[in-house]
Amino acid sequence: MLEKKKKSHFPFRLNLLFFSVFLLFSILILRLGFVQIVYGENFKRDLERKEDITVSNPVPRGKMLDRDYRVIVDNVPKSAITFTNEGFSQKEMLETAEKLAQLIDKTTDKVTERDKKDFWIINNQKRADAKITKNERDLYDAKKITDKDIYKYKLDRITENELKELTDNDLEALAIYREFTSGYKFTSQMVKNEDVTEKEFAVVSENLQSLPGVETTTDWDRSYAFENTLRSVLGKVTKSGDGLPADQLDYFLARGYSRNDRVGKSQLELQYEDILQGYKSKVKNITDKTGNVIETHSVYAGKKGKDIVLTVDMDLQMAVDKIIEEELWAAKQSPGTSLTDRAYVVLMDPWTGEVLTMSGKKIVKDKETGKVEMIDDALGTFTTTYNVGSAVKGATILTGYKTGAISPGTSFDDTGIKIKDTPLKKSYAYLGRLNEIDALKKSSNVYMFHTAINIGKGHYEYDKPLNFTNKFAFETIRNSFASFGLGTRTGIDLPSEQSGFKGQSKLPGHLLDLVIGQYDTYSAMQLAQYVSTIANGGNRMQPHVVKQIREPATEIDELGQVLQEINPTVLNTIDAKKEWMNRVQFGFKKVMQEPGGTAYNFFQGAAYSPAGKTGTAEAFYDGPLRSNYGKEPPPVMNLSLVSYAPSSNPEVAMAVLVPWAYEGKVDNRASLKIGKRVLDTYFQMKNQ
Questions:
Q1: pTM passes above 0.85
Q2: Among 167, 223, 269, 357, which residue's beta carbon has the most beta carbons within 10 A?
């Protein structure tokens, strides 16, 4: 009976098992069917999902040309090897770096000790892990220390002997790997673009299939047809390893730049970055869901940067540079010129503001060799300011007219001014009784002092205190001077322009210093704008060094189409009667063309009929050797000259500035020597 009962239960249990399995499979099939019907399309789209990622590649920068369309700054092509991280793992990039190290020479000077330690850990994972104690692992498991702490322990415990295990090949691979990881995903990173040999370029090109992410391409570098001429104004471009300037990172990123892009970092390259940079080529990489690139399409071929045409005449620029060099070296041979080390010249079209020449030279000592040499300092024409002396007296006379302090024909006796408890303030000699025209011709300080006293509504008596009832005399004169361009930014289309230093004292004696150019400081560019304003009859023109913006040149056309012509800009017009301006112009003409004029001995008989004003200012030295003199720097004389020609219908305006020209009473007349040679050269070249 028992056996029979057991037999009757076994088939039932087996059938129940089979039924359960059948039921579960039925549910699974129904579920799979439901998933396929309801979510099938979604899953299919996920499996086939692609992602479009657009990669931008740099293009050559635009050229710079002079006013006669001669190339000043161009691009020189050079072979380059790049890497684009297309989502590779650390291991894959290391393998590629090691392969590439066998094919090229890569300098390791940028590899740091930290780089070496990181590299050692990557290649010695087990040995690095063994540096962590059991106690530290327990703390890590208990979440009392972090991954960062563990990694730091490993780094700190790598010995010098372990680092010495890295071979020269390892270090080259590390240097390459360092370049690989310094960029961003899908952004080309420069691996080598200096001194890439033909053999390296060829062998890497042949092995690209085994070097994922690596490409051989053509890079570019800036070339300078006139070498160092005007280099400080042309500016610089960041190198491929520099990336975007840290202080302008957000600015450039907001405009679509990549962090490793090269950009203009100073002067013209920076000022016209948006124009010179061009439009990057764009390539669309299509990736699968794992990030692997499966297709690449060219979206935009790119367009090189636009060209800019400068107002500068490079032949004239080089000629002026040479004149300054020769006269500056010659001046250094004179007595009392131990501190003389620089000179500046600006030539400008007084009607348009076009800067024809901006030349500066500076004598420096090479820190490595100790050799004394002359370098370009054209930048100093608008970034450095000095006391300029009597060159500003034209502005003083016109300010006197405007304020009613003097009128045409007003005369003063040239006897020195003595204010109580101050030294006698006088001209370089007693010049007799003068009107304003002869005061300009002979450069009377005393005439300007009386004009300032009248502007300040003061009453002068010999050796008595001098007080002004006009409390705004300084502001009145400075505002008037600024309307000519003195003591204010000229508006030149270059960064870093300096407006100059304004003396803080409001003592009456300092007002007298102000009107003869011995209190506030001015740049050579400000002097050029000021004399241009007088030359053209009262319009302060904005100086500019860019004349045109053009489409990039093509193989067919040497010059691209003009996109923009930089038109003359009048910043303000002097509030002066024509008669007043004529009298100042006449005084300037007498300075250079009539016996007794302060520049007559140099410019007499000049066929181009010059007009202008000389300047000599006693100042305190504040140059590179300032620390040698403690708290009392020696007094020095700054020399200046402003001029235009021809006097009747000016076509060129000039400013010459020679700071710290001499010490003591030995006058080397460097400003006049330079100015005469420069104007002679300008008109000779024009006639040729």
A1: no
A2: 357
